[in-house]
Write a structure and sequence with these properties.
2 copies of one chain form a homodimer. By secondary structure, chain A is of the alpha+beta class. Chain A is about 40% helix and about 25% strand. In chain A, helix 6 packs across helix 7. The mean pLDDT of chain A is about 95. The interface between A and B is medium-sized, with 33 and 34 residues.
Amino acid sequence: MEQDAPRKTLPRLDESLLTHLPPFSRLERRQIRTILNQASSRRYAPGSHIFDEGESAERFFMLLDGYVRVVRVTSTGEQVTALHIPSGQLLGIAKALGRDTYPATAVTATESIALSWPTRLWDTFVADYDGFATETYKTLGHRVGEMNNRIVEMATQQVEQRVANALLRLVNQTGRKVEGGIEIDFPITRQDLSELTATTLHTASRLLSGWEKLGLVESKRKRIKVCDPHALVMLSQGR
Amino acid sequence: MEQDAPRKTLPRLDESLLTHLPPFSRLERRQIRTILNQASSRRYAPGSHIFDEGESAERFFMLLDGYVRVVRVTSTGEQVTALHIPSGQLLGIAKALGRDTYPATAVTATESIALSWPTRLWDTFVADYDGFATETYKTLGHRVGEMNNRIVEMATQQVEQRVANALLRLVNQTGRKVEGGIEIDFPITRQDLSELTATTLHTASRLLSGWEKLGLVESKRKRIKVCDPHALVMLSQGR
DNA sequence: ACCGCATATTGCGCTGGAGCAACGTTTCGG
DNA sequence: CCGAAACGTTGCTCCAGCGCAATATGCGGT
């Protein structure tokens, strides 16, 4: 499935790629040039693994384009999606948590492009680049917050509310305005949605069908558009 | 309920309190003295709140003695326990995640003693004390890992397995060897256990009763002793 | 144009475990 | 020492949602 496409340092990565991304936004052109010169760039086909849980964390990544799902697989083969990462964020930052292996698997949801650096540069980045650590820990804090919320959700809410919540979160984070509503910006199956909400694809499908009849959402294959976010918010709070 | 007992800088905190704790273990006596001089010490009765979710994070803490439960409360008043923290660990380290409010509530499970410092000293600690940041992020990484595992558990396992897992985790982290088994070192009710495993106290009670009949555990009020850990491991893995 | 596969829908039966209720037991304050 | 509150147990009922199965439909490859 994976053919390890060779990483290449593209002839000339433009500084503007990074200048507006939080971890690098306080840096000067010169510093960004240095950073880019150390980076490898690579394109990933949809569904490919950027790294796998348990692997030793050789590199850390900056997602420049696309979407990535952070997934964990149980011993019995079930998948649980922990998180979605949109472009502009770091991933695989095991080092920031004092780990030397990746804690989860990163799978691309769409075609994606990511820069990466050898993990050994991490400490240099933290030490040399003002704001890098701070911003990194901010996104980390954000992710921890999300995980926390999911735990609370799963512990206290019904399936219907969880699915509604998940949909809203996806729309907020990765929504693209289209006519008649907001569409989730990457292909997502009922199965994906069920792995995100700890239910079965059957139940997810039934819920979506129901909501579609009520005009809350519209969905084609692998595409979900939310037409009435407010109604979903109601649902997500149990009426 | 809380009468804000005055924090006092105890006459003479002994350096040996901190020398063996990871975040401080690489420091010299002189540095530890400085750190202690800036600390406030306080005793907490069981069940008291060290800080509450959403409060602005004025201070960070080192738990010297006791156990703390990290809890989140939903809008409908249900409690979900995210984590147990044993003595020797930092808590309330919002700053490490780039936050300026506490992400959850910390409640003491036993009588506890904690040192605390104003959050404004955080950056100083990170900058001045070798190994402080590294060790902090290690425990953070560990906690994130735990949260992750709980998500996967809750998503894929049955109640029985989750409760078995929770018990094993508690025993591993805070177990005290007693005759006939290993006992959880702090008072824990069926209700607590259910909040830890996303179930009801009824179900938790039934499970414990069942296991007690099989000789896997023994429990008095607020006390649980695991007699046959191996059998519990079996259960926790679905037979 | 065709086949084959991945994705989606829907009906139906079954059950884990929540919800409710009633009661027993230990602890603690006064 | 007594009464009340906190904690624990257990029986019964009910239903959300899982598991299974059958069918439909869009999509990519040759």
